[in-house]
Amino acid sequence: MSGLRDASGTIVIDEAEAEEDIRRVQNARASLEEARQYLDPASIDSERMYGMTRDAIEEQFTRMTKDLTDWQDYCDATVSYIRNIVAEYQRIDREYAAKAKELK
Known about the structure:
Elements: H1 15-38, H2 51-103
């Protein structure tokens, strides 16, 4: 999200930009899921690979799969964080609007 402050220094949350950020993160997450599917340790050809080579490849597949899953979890947390921030600022805006009405 760009432009988090206006000219007076007040924090501004652009909901459309936040949604665009969420779309980008969700697209990245989908790419991570696709990559994770390609790293299925079951895809190793056990008939043609033996011993340490197969074990090393399985170990790397497992490590990379875990990393991709962790990154997907981070994407989910990022989307949740953005949504929570937008909701918090919407709540603050409603409270200020209500207080402004009371002062009139």
